[in-house]
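A reminder from the course coordinator: this example appears on the midterm review sheet, so study it carefully.

Given structure:
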């Protein structure tokens, strides 16, 4: 395995953050459903009853999700396949919660409540900035929603809700997948720009980021001009001035040299004390 690039480091950090976020969302969502069901059965409709298995599943799911959140937060170690396990766990939580409502609510209400939950599941997978979990989440959401609704819906509305739910979940999955790809492209371009700008002029960086294949072309030798410049008499001058004033002078000098070098198409290679090294002619 090769060294981790800046781009990969950013992506992994984002993935860890998304895993924590998804588990916190699970814990909050399940807790809200538990509280809502409790108040309905306790103070609302006395005919509304949920099986003991549903309560057990919801409480265990909330505790496990919160535990995963705490562990990932404390350990903060990247695992390449964990995002797929977390995606399956998220889908299991949503599906299990609605399986317990089978027969307790009408099919129209079920479709209205369940569909946004699966859309949220896909959006949560997209936070990981990885195309694989998005497609996995979309597939699991579609299968779970249709299997759940097939047990609930009456024949008169089954086809309509089937088409509506399928199209919405497929469209959400494809949109989330595209957004992840675009976001990864922007991150990759940002990292590339940052690294190249340390050594190349701005216009060269623009060309390379717009056409990455330029880096794959055959190299060639060029004649370049190297410039060294510093402040004449700097040592003697700095001996009679306080350090903050000397530092201010050096910073102002570096800034002015950097601006002038960039205007002439050059690139600053290094700053050393009051000295600056720049190169010209590499691009041309």
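Designed residues:
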């Amino acid at each position: 395995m090769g060294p981790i690039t800046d781009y990969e480091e950013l992506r992994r950090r984002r993935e860890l953050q998304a895993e924590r976020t998804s588990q916190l969302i699970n814990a909050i969502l399940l807790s809200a459903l538990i509280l809502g069901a409790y108040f309905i059965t306790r103070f609302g409709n006395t005919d509304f009853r949920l099986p003991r298995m549903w309560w057990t599943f919801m409480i265990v799911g909330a505790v496990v999700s919160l535990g995963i959140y705490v562990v990932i937060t404390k350990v903060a170690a990247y695992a390449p396949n964990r995002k797929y396990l977390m995606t399956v766990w998220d889908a299991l939580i949503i599906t299990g919660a609605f399986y317990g409502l089978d027969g307790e609510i009408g099919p129209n209400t079920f479709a209205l409540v369940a569909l946004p939950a699966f859309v949220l599941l896909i959006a949560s997978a997209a936070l990981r900035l990885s195309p694989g979990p998005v497609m996995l989440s979309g597939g699991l959401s579609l299968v779970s929603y249709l299997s759940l609704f097939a047990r609930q819906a009456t024949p008169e509305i089954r086809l309509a809700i089937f088409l509506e739910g399928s199209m919405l979940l497929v469209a959400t999955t494809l949109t989330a997948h595209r957004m992840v790809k675009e976001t990864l492209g922007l991150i990759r371009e940002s990292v590339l720009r940052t690294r190249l700008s340390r050594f190349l002029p701005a216009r060269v960086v623009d060309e390379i980021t717009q056409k990455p294949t330029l880096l794959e072309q055959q190299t060639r030798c060029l004649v370049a001009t190297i410039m060294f410049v510093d402040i004449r008499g700097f040592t003697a001058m700095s001996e009679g001035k306080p350090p903050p004033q000397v530092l201010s002078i050096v910073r102002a000098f570096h800034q002015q040299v950097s601006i002038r070098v960039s205007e002439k198409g050059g690139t600053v290679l290094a700053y050393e004390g009051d000295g600056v090294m720049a190169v010209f002619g590499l691009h041309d």
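The longest strand covers residues 267-272. The mean pLDDT is 81.
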